[in-house]
UniProtKB/TrEMBL annotation:
Protein known as: AhpC/TSA family protein
Residues annotated as domain Thioredoxin: 9-144
GO MF assignments: antioxidant activity; oxidoreductase activity
CDD domains: PRX_like1 (cd02969)
Pfam families assigned to the protein according to its UniProt record, in alphabetical order: AhpC-TSA (PF00578)
PANTHER family assigned to the protein according to its UniProt record, in alphabetical order: OS07G0260300 PROTEIN, THIOREDOXIN-DEPENDENT PEROXIREDOXIN
Length: 185
């Protein structure tokens, strides 16, 4: 299982639209999930130890960011053929079990992950209200295990700044996680 870091933020890069099925039976696109002050797009999955370590923190931060007008969506792009834990059925189970406060959608073709340049799970893309990229960093200092409870909340602080000013912090620490499980071509 390869661990990868995300590239540095390409400030101003425009979010690309998508139309993906959610585990709740609905379809989602940018307009459906964008908040008044911004949008957080997360590439996550069910099996990755990096995601499992921060799942509760992601839920906490998304809930709090909603109060700042930031919408959120989680996209699962792994090929479940080799990772059955990432199947659509298991996505629905996990979303229900953890009461995800955001749509959890499946990028079955992997086209959206490729278009966004997603490389790992978790991979966070924070956009302002004009859907311009302002954050491409880590959630916090967590790795395969959760950071201490008092760890700096990098993603949360960055997205609050984006909501208030439209601009993300210039200094960002890359996210680290398991590589996206690409389908054999």
């Amino acid at each position: 299982m390869a661990s990868l870091e995300t590239p540095i933020c390409d400030f101003g890069w425009k979010a690309l639209d998508f139309d993906l099925p959610g585990v709740d039976g609905k379809r989602y696109n940018l307009a459906a999930v964008k908040g008044e002050k911004g949008l957080l797009i997360m590439f996550i999955c069910n099996h990755c130890p990096y995601v499992k370590a921060v799942r509760d923190r992601i839920i906490r931060d998304v809930n709090e960011l909603a109060g700042y007008g930031v919408g959120a969506i989680a996209i699962m792009s792994n090929d479940p053929a080799d990772y059955p834990e990432d199947s659509f059925e298991n996505m629905a189970r996990i979303a229900k079990e953890f009461n995800y406060p955001f749509p959890y959608v499946w990028d079955e073709s992997q086209e959206i992950a490729k278009a966004y340049g997603a490389v790992c799970t978790p991979d966070f893309f924070g956009f302002n209200n004009n859907l311009e990229l302002q954050y491409r960093g880590r959630l916090d200092a967590s790795r395969k295990e959760a950071a201490p409870p008092d760890a700096r909340r990098d993603l949360f602080e960055a997205m609050v700044q984006v909501a208030k000013t439209g601009q993300g912090p210039r200094d960002q620490i890359p996210s680290i996680g398991c590589s996206i499980k690409w389908r054999a071509e």
